[in-house]
Amino acid sequence: MICYMPRIQVIEKLGLKSEESNVEPNPRGMDPTRVENPSKKIPPIDIHLTALFAAVEHGHTDKAKTILESTDVDVNGVNSDGLSPLDVAVLNNNKPLIKMLIGFGAQEGNEFSSGDSLLSHLRKLSCEADQRICDLTGTDARNQSLWQRRSKGLANLIRGFTQARPPDVPSLVAVDVIGSHTVNVRFREPESNDSPPTTKFKIEWSTDPDFKSLCGYRILLDPRQTECSIDEVAHGTRYYFRLCCGNIKGWGHPHPSTPAS
């Protein structure tokens, strides 16, 4: 969980603007007037992860790279909203930043079962932020201002999600038989520079050329991966394979393998 004030200090040290940040305005996003149990420990703050999210949220690729190179920060750490740095970069459609993060091993936060559940979660957080703004009107201008910043940041994420789309079809899907029960699937992400970013892959196989029923599937969350061995096939059975690219928005159209079976 990331607290607000240390994050603000990090943002200021990095020379970043804080008005676009979607961080929760106070520790764990709780009512600042609520009395906490003094015996209950607050989780330690990961300053490096805080700095990384600040750089990513503001689109500062060089500063994010410096943080990743000079600290032991977990590039796949998630913030209090359940998002990873890569999720935030994808929602902001910042392709240079996405490419850089992937080079350091970044993956989706994988905290949500679908794009729809993520959107519902973001909208819920946005409603909560707007309600806090109303509750603080005329009583606490400072905290109200912080919640307004958070509301604006969440609105940017929601807009980024609604404008996003899944990736195009992969440019290569090839299958090689390497054993009596094993095949190796090779693949490449879409070649077009206009394609939305790819952050994951899904391989499906079936004995039906129309894929009306699946024998199995494999989801690969490392976007750097270019091949995958599958040892779940029966000797002497004809299988058909296909692969699709995905991102936080969902899955693109599948591409059949070469050869087809």
From TrEMBL:
Residues 169-261 form the Fibronectin type-III domain. Keywords: ANK repeat. It comes from Lygus hesperus. Pfam families: Ank_4. The gene is ANKFN1_0. GO terms for cellular component: spindle. The keyword Membrane does not apply. ANK repeats lie at residues 81-107. Residues 19-39 are annotated as: Disordered. This is Ankyrin repeat and fibronectin type-III domain-containing protein 1. InterPro entries: ANKFN1 (IPR039269), Ankyrin_rpt (IPR002110), Ankyrin_rpt-contain_sf (IPR036770), FN3_dom (IPR003961), FN3_sf (IPR036116), Ig-like_fold (IPR013783). One of its GO terms (biological process) is establishment of mitotic spindle orientation.
